[in-house]
Amino acid sequence: MQNEYYLKESKLVEKTEIEKEVELIRTIVKTREELKVANRNFEYAQDDLVDYYTYQIKANQAKLDYLIKLAKTKGIEVDMINDIKFTLWDEGEEAV
Questions:
Q1: Taking the complete model, does pTM exceed 0.70, yes or no?
Q2: Interval 15-32: pLDDT, tens
């Protein structure tokens, strides 16, 4: 007889609108930082890494454009993004 394992289904907890907005803002901040790092690394890249960082920059820029567009449709302003970023920075939590 084969051992069969079943996972118990659990109900997903729906996030509140505020939690969704904070997560979106954190993702924007994180993506912006990843884009900055990719740009810095591109400056010193050699050989095949030039292509790698070029694609990474393009991917992060496309993701950032999408997230900002999504934030605008939800009425989130850039000032709110910066406020959250600096608030997280002041609290000692890593700005993700």
A1: no
A2: 888 888 888 888 988 999
- Please list, in sequence order, all residues whose beta carbon lies within 8 angstroms of the beta carbon of residue 61, skipping any fewer than 6 positions away: 35
Is 21 exposed, middle or buried, given 0-12, 13-18 or 19+ CB atoms closer than 10 A? middle
Best CA proximity match to 58, nearest among 72, 28, 38, 43: 38
Cβ–Cβ < 8 Å for 56, 40: no
Say how far apart CA 13 and CA 68 lie, in whole Å. 26
Find the helix packing angle between 49-73 and 17-44, rounded to 10°.
Answer: 160
Helices (H), the chain: 17-44, 49-73, 78-90
pLDDT single digits (tens) 51-95: 999 999 999 999 999 999 999 998 887 665 666 665 555 455 444
Query: Residue 33 has which token pair?
Result: 């930082």
Do 80 and 28 form a contact (C-beta atoms < 8 A)?
no
